[in-house]
Amino acid sequence: MDPLQIVISDVIEPSVSQVISAGLSAFNDQVTGINDRQALAVTVQDPASGQVLGGITGRNFLGLLFLELFYLPDSLRGSGLGSRLLKAYEDEGRRRGCTSAVLYTLSFQAPGFYEKNGWQRFGEIPCIPEGSSRVFMSKAL
């Protein structure tokens, strides 16, 4: 009988994330001698209520800025606000010592937006729905 059990779940408990994140972070820190990982959020808020309307979240680690999520509601798109948010995100990455940035988007989301802002495709993988793909992009900072 195997003394270990493999468990599959569609819920990621905070304690599970903590064990995996702490273990991987400790390994990376031991190998590199560097612990510069830090979360980053750049948001747009309603000044009257303070409510977050959209923005960007991600992190930096080992001189690389990761853009993980970027959302603006339809009513705020096309006004230049997205480019301003992205620039603020990139500027903060530079301030933190990042020399490159990376993200992935979906082909039906915003690859053209990122390209207009100086990002370059370095990979693409087909996904569902048919005809769609994940587009991997990077930018030198």
Number of strands: 6
Our estimate of the beta-strand percent is 35-45%
Strand order of the largest sheet: 1-2-3-4-6-5
In CATH, the architecture is 3-Layer(aba) Sandwich
Q: How many domains comprise the coordinates?
A: 1
Kindly identify the CATH topology.
Aminopeptidase
Characterize the overall form. Answer: globular
CATH class category label:
Alpha Beta
Q: How do the SSEs run, as a string of H and E?
A: HEEEHEHEE
What is the residue-averaged pLDDT?
95
Oligomer: single chain
Instruction: Give the C-alpha Rg.
Output: 18 Å
- Please describe the biggest sheet, giving its number of strands, its sense, and whether it closes into a barrel: 6 strands, mixed
Helix content: 25-40%
Q: Treating each run of at least 4 consecutive H or I residues as one helix, how many helices?
A: 3
Q: Would you identify the regions where 5 or more consecutive residues have pLDDT less than 50?
A: none
According to CATH, the homologous superfamily is Gcn5-related N-acetyltransferase (GNAT)
The structure class reads alpha+beta
Q: Report how far apart the termini are.
A: 53 Å
List the helices and strands and how they pair.
Layout: H1 14-32, E1 38-45, E2 52-61, E3 64-71, H2 81-95, E4 100-106, H3 111-116, E5 120-127, E6 132-140
Parallel strand pairs: 3-4
Antiparallel strand pairs: 1-2, 2-3, 4-6, 5-6
Domain N-acetyltransferase: 6-141
Organism: Pseudomonas fungipugnans
Protein name: GNAT family N-acetyltransferase
Characterize the structure shown.
This protein has three helices and six strands. The chain is α+β, with helices and mostly antiparallel strands. The protein has a single domain, classed as 3-Layer(aba) Sandwich (Aminopeptidase), CATH 3.40.630.30. Strands 1-2-3-4-6-5 form a six-stranded mixed β-sheet. It is globular and about 60 Å long. About 15% of the residues are buried. The model has no long low-confidence stretch (mean pLDDT about 95).
